[in-house]
Amino acid sequence: LALSSSTDSTTVNRLTGTLNLSADTLQTNLEGTFFGTTVSLHLAQLSGNAVSGNIALGAASAATLESLSPLWGHFVAADGRDFKIAFTIGTLKLSETGKLTALNDVSADLTRSAGIVNLTRGQAAFLNGAVQLAGILTPDGIWRINSTLKGADAQNAFAVPAPIAGRMDGTFDLEGTITVAEAKGKVRLTEGTLLGIDLEKARQILINEAPETLPPELVAKTARTRLSELTADIALTKTSESEHFIKISGKALAPRVGSAELPWIAEFAGEASHSQMTIDIKATLAAEGKTPELMLPVQVIFKTGSAPQWIINWFAAAQPAAAAHA
What we know:
The protein has 326 residues and is mainly β. It has helices spanning 62-77, 199-208, 314-325, and strands spanning 14-21, 26-34, 37-46, 50-57, 60-61, 83-93, 102-113, 116-126, 129-137, 143-153, 164-176, 180-195, 224-226, 229-238, 244-253, 264-272, 276-285, 294-303, 309-312. The chain contains three helices and 19 strands. It has a 19-stranded mixed sheet that branches. Strand 7 and strand 8 (116-126) form a beta hairpin. The longest helix is centred in the first third of the chain and has 16 residues, at 62-77. It is elongated and about 95 Å long. The chain starts with 13 loop residues before the first strand and ends with a helix.
């Protein structure tokens, strides 16, 4: 079954297999390539005009899914036809760049009843963790998905030297058409590490010396800041057909030592486009001895293809610390 005359390997559609048609049933067993994606179709039309079966894709991108949307829309909108289909996708890429937009070993059940399509038992591998999915597709083409993330590797989310390490859990709510339009979620990272900055050492230096200039070791490649917990709210909005904009805000806590006050607490907020993310951090360093509570402003900038850049406004904390020493 050649569905296109194109010789372009990314668009050629060629399926081979069997179609068995009887008076009241239709069975389809096809394998091949569909819009450049390996596909296996095993479907059967049952009594009562219902469809059941399995669809398996080797890999799929957002462009592939968009190309399939007219066919999918016709199938979903078919009046009076209910279905139950189990599907698997080896790798689903929502963008050609970035590990944050790729899901592996995707599987779920799709059922249609009275014009409503439900996604149940959805699961996938993401950043060496696990995602569970559930969703709905309405007759007007709007879909909504709720997801839960467990045990993802935060450091693995970055193609360049990462600014953070640790395991994260989270929940996300998404809504859109073929491509993501809006999303919001919460993530929580425990027993993590900030990479490339040392807030605890910064506090100790300010307590003991308070030099006028920033000690370079505080933002060296080997600098580390241990976290007991980091929580963040994330919101994604679509600004154009191909651009998305991300806002993030949250809080990070230092590890607690006995019953003492936390050495530092950091609140942060930032924005990101496809090429750059900037996060502003306000670190509150706990008082000790003659040194009062100090505010240490920090900024971290990520650019595509570059290591994160940590910028500390050292003067803002060093001046009141030096005054306390005097």
